[in-house]
């Protein structure tokens, strides 16, 4: 489902650097409400940096970040989070020594009630309901990723930024996770997904961009021609 009214999240001419070394050289990317956009690319291409800029975690050295068409460049991460931008970093971001329930209840800082947070998490991810008393560290990788998503969704985000959701997971599990991501987008969330390996996310993505060496090399509908071209982009990169 794609809503009209322009992109919810837009990166326009974004440049970013670490200590004087530029790693994004003018990135243009837009995500509409209800859309899944996949940002693909090899190791070190700048994908995580792009998400950090979108979340306000890393300040861009050039270009603009727009939220709902408004300039949000330079707004701090906490304020962007309150405005509805949710980053789920690589490595899942759950607390392994806390139970599933405790991980969820920490999200009451958002102002939502415990009941509301638990009910919506277990409705969307029933397996979390059956494991609510289990320590998060003892869940499977896919379940931990579901818990990370449930924690993110408790903030009721307008923009969801996902970094390497598939990391370390079996293809079947990744496929299921991306079906869930597609459902989240159908609810009107703008989803930007970063992945090094593309197959699963391309099944649900409305749009894809390939980043190599901090520059978009290809951008468009993820049709079969992209699959063929991806390998050449990856093989052609020096990282
Ligand atoms: P990966 O999949 O390896 O995370 P990526 O496409 O997400 O790759 P980034 O993590 O954004 O790429 O990194 C882009 C470039 O910036 C790389 O060359 C990386 O070494 C460099 N870089 C990333 N983080 C830092 C940092 N905190 N300090 C210095 N350089 C960094």
- Summed over residues and divided by their number, the pLDDT gives a mean of 91
Report the uncertain regions: none
Major sheet: arrangement of strands: 6-7-8-3-9-10
Order of helices and strands: EEEHEEHEHHHHEHEHEEH
Main pleated-sheet profile? 6 strands, mixed
Number of domains: 2
Q: Can you say what the CATH homologous superfamily of the largest domain is?
A: P-loop containing nucleotide triphosphate hydrolases
The CATH top-level class label of the largest domain = Alpha Beta
Secondary structural class? alpha/beta
Q: Report how far apart the termini are.
A: 36 Å
List keywords for this structure.
9 helices, 2 domains, 239 residues, binds adenosine-5'-triphosphate, alpha/beta
Protein described:
With 239 residues, the chain is an alpha/beta fold. The chain has two domains: 1-84 and 157-239, 3-Layer(aba) Sandwich (Rossmann fold), CATH 3.40.50.300; 95-156. The chain has helices spanning 47-54, 77-82, 100-105, 114-124, 126-130, 141-153, 171-186, 199-204, 224-236; strands at 9-18, 21-31, 36-40, 62-67, 70-71, 85-88, 159-163, 190-195, 207-212, 215-220. The strands form two sheets. Strands 6-7-8-3-9-10 form a six-stranded mixed β-sheet, with helices on both faces. Strands 2-1-4-5 form a four-stranded antiparallel β-sheet, covered by helices on one side. The protein starts with 8 loop residues before the first strand and ends with a helix. Residues 18, 23, 41, 43-49, 196 line the site of adenosine-5'-triphosphate.
